[in-house]
Request: fold
Amino acid sequence: MNQVLTRTKPDASTQAAGYRDIITHLDATPADEVRLSHAETIATLFGAHLTGIYTNMLPEAIGYAAEMGAAAIIEMEQRLRQQGVDRAAILAERLTRLSVASELRKIEELSPVLRASVAREARWADLFIASCPRDSDDRKWSTMIETVLFEGGHGVYLIPPGLKARDAIRTIMVGWVDTREAARAITEAMPLLRLATTVHLLGVREYASEAAALASLSDIAAHLARHGVKTSINVKHASDKSVANALLDQAHRVSADLIVAGAYGHSRLREWLLGGATRELLELSDIPLLMAH
Reply:
């Protein structure tokens, strides 16, 4: 892993306590500006240090062996490495123009090593920012984002394609299911929840009774109140296939700036490849998501 450091700017010590280290994924495409707009907004709220992780994926020789000779594969790798140097320099200069302290790191590896390296970086930061992986888009980085979500140990803030950052995150919708994943998501989102003007807790009821769902919501609402977060609570019935739609419908009703939800599913493989509420939410949401596992 190579590292390129940018010039840093003084930390805003008077900003609200919360996130101190934020990472955003960069890949030298136009989507970088969208990710940087969200990352800079959140970093500014907390006076946080922002690290850009530029990923340059190298070709796996086995994937090209049948159609390219060894010399051609070597030439391709050299070209990608030089391209990585050039693009990292451009990104480093771009970060100097941010209003927050910043740093650029370059990870240049084969895909499996790159995924593990990015997840390792995510573990020392408070929040990882990336684009929502979608079937309709280039899924080059989907498995990397999945790895960070399941192995990074912190929250992942996911941006729908092309959605520029708002000036503030005032209204937050929390999708509550009585699971470990939902509890983790609330913990990871706590700094933003404390700053929000309005927080809505939505229990999407599948199998439990409405009374049981309300009791669970009341307990988590009381917990949030002790952290200074006032909430409203609501229970909505939904089948397993429409959990994401139920959450999105309610988020639109309250004009939410952010949805907080757990990355559910007992099986990573089933949840990521075969669907489920998490996959559907990633595919459909037009609102930023803060998810944790």
The first strand starts at residue 2 and ends at 4. The mean pLDDT is 86.
